[in-house]
Amino acid sequence: MADKPLGTSTLEVQRTLDAVWRIESARIIATLAKVTGDVGLTLGITRTLAMS
Known about the structure:
77% helix; 2 helices; single chain; mainly alpha
């Protein structure tokens, strides 16, 4: 079983990832839309990422 770094709990990690997503999601969505040229595809990708 792997050791947890500095007592980091799963809940703390989830909260951190949620905070990063809230801060950066607009930039991620805009970049994906620019790269793919398809807003619908981009929203589908980001929904999938948010659910995983």
